[in-house]
């Protein structure tokens, strides 16, 4: 049975006072909480005002969920130039010096808008990504997916970060699904094999990772997993992959939270798995590229939304061995915009 944490208790746990942006900006991770900060969609040619808000807070881990840079051209030359620009970011260097940083990519930092496995320079792209981010990976040559296990107060938090680009089936046509808006992108169903987002090797790895015992699993996907009514990229475009993932999550014993990016808005979506467990997809997209047009996107699963620039935080405390997970959106001035808390069992 899922139980909600009362708002008063939630505010106290977060160290916030109602309508107090100052306290929100100064929030710190304490011994009783493990805190993950994350964001996506960071354009080097736009204002970088979000950095001070990130650096003013304390995180145990930071995660970049894709579109971590925007090349001026969809070419290898443009990609290299964008990495060179990002390497000059003093604020990013400060973040790396303060907290462990992990990253995956989405289409633009992979190499082109809506890019997939047909990207001509994908082997060069993976070299650039690995040279820049300098982190561990699950495979030497099959993408940039990775995982890490954290221990907090004797419990395990398992962070799994997917790669939805490197092995993605190439798109060939646009099709329409009755539950999606007109023009929704669909994969090439004429391919010799079933359309895939992750590829066979990553699926095999993911299934093994999900079997590892942990009191909480956090899975990062560069594109939204649960939201399905908009016409843009999402897991639901690959129906077989979507059903396979939800089936796996419904069978494992660990409660799970999904994190996603890409959509230029910040929102929380929620469903109930066949097991009866709640599953959240917390999208934080728009470190500096949130877009007002996203206000018109339908999402019947939505429980929270904000269209301002900013980043997400997942704060984890414990009720026995059950994680008390608080998902908060912080704007570029450090103000709390929304917060959703649940005891996941």
What would you note in describing this structure?
With 345 residues, the protein is α/β, with parallel strands linked by helices. It has a single domain (3-16, 32-343), classed as Alkaline phosphatase D (PhoD) (Purple Acid Phosphatase, chain A, domain 2, 4-Layer Sandwich). It has nine helices and 16 strands. It has helices at residues 7-14, 21-25, 50-55, 76-86, 90-98, 107-110, 122-133, 200-211, 239-251, and strands at residues 3-4, 34-39, 61-64, 101-103, 146-152, 155-161, 171-174, 185-187, 216-221, 256-260, 266-272, 278-284, 302-306, 310-319, 322-331, 336-343. It has a seven-stranded mixed β-sheet with strand order 1-16-15-14-2-3-4. The protein starts with a strand and ends with a strand. 43% of the residues are buried. Mean pLDDT is 88; it is low at 1-28 and 173-184.
Share of helix, binned? 10-25%
Strand order of the largest sheet: 1-16-15-14-2-3-4
CATH architecture: 4-Layer Sandwich
End-to-end span in angstroms?
A: 7 Å
Summary tags:
Purple Acid Phosphatase, chain A, domain 2; single chain; 345 residues; alpha/beta
Concise structural overview:
It is built from nine helices and 16 strands. The chain is α/β, with parallel strands linked by helices and 345 residues long.
Blueprint of the fold:
Elements: E1 3-4, H1 7-14, H2 21-25, E2 34-39, H3 50-55, E3 61-64, H4 76-86, H5 90-98, E4 101-103, H6 107-110, H7 122-133, E5 146-152, E6 155-161, E7 171-174, E8 185-187, H8 200-211, E9 216-221, H9 239-251, E10 256-260, E11 266-272, E12 278-284, E13 302-306, E14 310-319, E15 322-331, E16 336-343
Parallel strand pairs: 2-3, 3-4, 6-9, 9-10, 10-12
Antiparallel strand pairs: 1-16, 2-14, 5-6, 7-8, 11-12, 11-13, 14-15, 15-16
Helix pairs in contact: 4-7
């Amino acid at each position: 049975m899922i139980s909600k944490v009362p708002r008063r208790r939630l505010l106290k746990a977060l160290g916030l006072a109602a309508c107090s942006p100052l306290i929100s900006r100064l929030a710190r991770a304490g011994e009783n909480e493990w805190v993950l900060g994350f964001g996506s969609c960071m354009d080097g040619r736009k204002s970088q005002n979000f950095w001070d808000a990130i650096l003013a807070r304390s995180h145990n881990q930071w995660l970049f969920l894709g579109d971590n840079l925007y090349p001026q051209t969809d070419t290898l030359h443009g990609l290299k130039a964008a990495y060179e620009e990002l390497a000059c970011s003093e604020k990013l260097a400060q973040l790396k010096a303060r907290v462990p940083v992990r990253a995956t990519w989405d289409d633009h930092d992979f190499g082109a808008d809506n890019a997939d496995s047909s990207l001509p320079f994908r082997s060069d792209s993976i070299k650039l990504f690995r040279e820049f981010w300098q982190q561990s990976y699950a495979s030497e040559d099959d993408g940039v997916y990775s995982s890490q296990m954290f221990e907090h107060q004797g419990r395990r938090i398992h962070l799994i970060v997917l790669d939805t680009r490197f092995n993605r089936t190439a798109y060939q046509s646009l099709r329409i699904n009755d539950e999606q808006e007109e023009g929704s992108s669909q994969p090439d169903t004429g391919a010799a094999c079933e359309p895939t987002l992750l590829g066979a090797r990553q699926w095999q790895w993911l299934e093994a990772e999900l079997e590892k015992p942990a009191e909480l699993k956090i899975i990062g996907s560069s594109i939204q997993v649960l939201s399905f009514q908009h016409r843009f990229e999402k897991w639901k475009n690959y129906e077989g992959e979507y059903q396979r993932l939800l089936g796996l999550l419904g069978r494992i014993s660990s409660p799970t939270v999904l994190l996603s990016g890409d959509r230029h808005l910040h929102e929380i979506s929620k469903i109930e798995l066949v097991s009866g467990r709640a599953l959240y997809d917390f999208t934080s997209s728009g470190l500096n590229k949130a877009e007002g047009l996203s206000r018109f996107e339908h999402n019947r699963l939505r429980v929270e939304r904000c269209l301002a620039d900013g980043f997400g935080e997942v704060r984890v405390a414990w009720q026995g061995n059950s994680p008390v997970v608080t998902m908060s959106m912080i704007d570029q001035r450090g103000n709390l915009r929304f917060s959703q808390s649940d005891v996941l069992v």
